[in-house]
Amino acid sequence: MKRLAIAVFLFSAALNAQEKAAAPEENMTWKWVNFVILAAGLGYLMWKMLPPFFKSRTAEIQQGIREAQAIKKEADVRAAQMEVRMAALGAEIEKFRTQSNAEMEQESARIGQETARQMARLEQQAQLEIETAAKIARRELQAYAAKLAIDLAEQRVRERLDGAADSVLIDDFVKDLGASRN
């Protein structure tokens, strides 16, 4: 191929040299001969080079089309999968809501039971505190009543005891002590 191109170039150069040396009528003839040789050379080169170029280009385009179709099929498959997921997503959300509501009801029931237990325990504790406070109040009341009774008895004894009765009591007490020592 290169040899042919070199040969055409050399031949064309030789013709150009002859053209310049020839007369003006011959000059026109040589221009036509030169044009025909140039056109034939270019035609040969195009016939030799263009079909493989077009074949390879066609093959590349067809390969690109096949790849694009494969990518499109893959994208369609993924889109279909996404559609299925999206359809299932609504069901999953509803399932989650139902499950959440059930869990909330269970938790509410558990909290209610725990509250009832706490209330019962607090009632028992309050009842015990009330009973304890009542016992303490009774004891204090009994102690107060006893003190009042003692104070009242002391007051009565003082009213009844005068100086003479007091001396008699002290004398009797001293006698009893002396007798118990012997």
Description of the structure:
The protein has one domain. 97% of the residues lie in helices and 0% in strands. It contains three helices and no strands. The protein has helices at residues 2-21, 24-160, 163-181. Helix 1 crosses helix 2 (24-160). The longest helix is centred in the middle third of the chain and has 137 residues, at 24-160. The model has no long low-confidence stretch (mean pLDDT 84).
Strand content: under 5%
Q: Mean pLDDT across all residues, rounded?
A: 84
Q: Tell me the distance between the termini.
A: 167 Å
* Tally of helical segments: 3
Low-confidence stretches: none
Q: Tell me the radius of gyration.
A: 66 Å
Count of domain modules: 1
Question: What is the subunit organization of this protein?
Answer: single chain
**Tell me about the biggest sheet?**
none
Please count the beta strands (DSSP E, at least 2 residues each): 0
Secondary-structure element pattern, one letter each: HHH
Instruction: Name the overall outline.
Output: rod-shaped
Structural class: mainly alpha
Instruction: Indicate the percent of residues in helices.
Output: over 70%
